[in-house]
Write a structure and sequence with these properties.
The chain is of the alpha+beta class. 18% of the residues lie in helices and 34% in strands. It has one domain (14-52, 59-222): Nucleoside Triphosphate Pyrophosphohydrolase (Alpha-Beta Complex). The chain contains 4 helices and 12 strands.
Length: 224
Amino acid sequence: MPSPPRILDPRSVPVVGNDGSLPSVPPERLTPHALRELFASAGDWEPELVGDGRLIVDRGAPAPASVLVPLVDRAQGLQVLLTRRTEHLRDHAGQISFPGGRAETHDADAAATALREAREEIGLAHERVDVIGRLPEYATVTHYLVTPVVAIVAPPFELALERGEVAEAFEVPLAFLMDPANHHRHLFRFEGGERQFLSMPWGERFIWGATAAMLRNLYRFLSR
């Protein structure tokens, strides 16, 4: 079976609904203390989304990778630190993403990969980052098996972007992303099938694809 085509212009794909009927995560769960307790007692649970649905033919096992899900502890509430990729990259050009990348043989574990990549991509110092847990692996269209590593980031800190990969870094309120009324469902139709994906637009920034899916899994975990 051939793989479905890549979505090159996700903004143009029709929105078929949102999930405003679902409850938002209560504010008392969106604090550093509450999140640490929730991840410490996570137990077994099933993510809502496990991959972006594109078949990869004859490419072998996906490569391990990690991303850091940095939750910045601001006075106004936790903020999710995200990046926008540069336009010339082969994969995910111009897309909103978490800092992260492919695992290296010298990385001790998924958290080590995420921390290393965050330092390399945006200059985030390890000393400001407290890893509190991880989300289930997510299989991407680019043939990676990604572990999202969740962490609390303590200000103040200064970022130094790797301009060859990262065009900008910005923050979005965690409460906004944990409100399903802001989760839009798109339906992409192509010859021989169709595919759904989520987006979470924030102003002019269009959060979609794997990043939106991982955020949706975080919502599912926090709203159990």
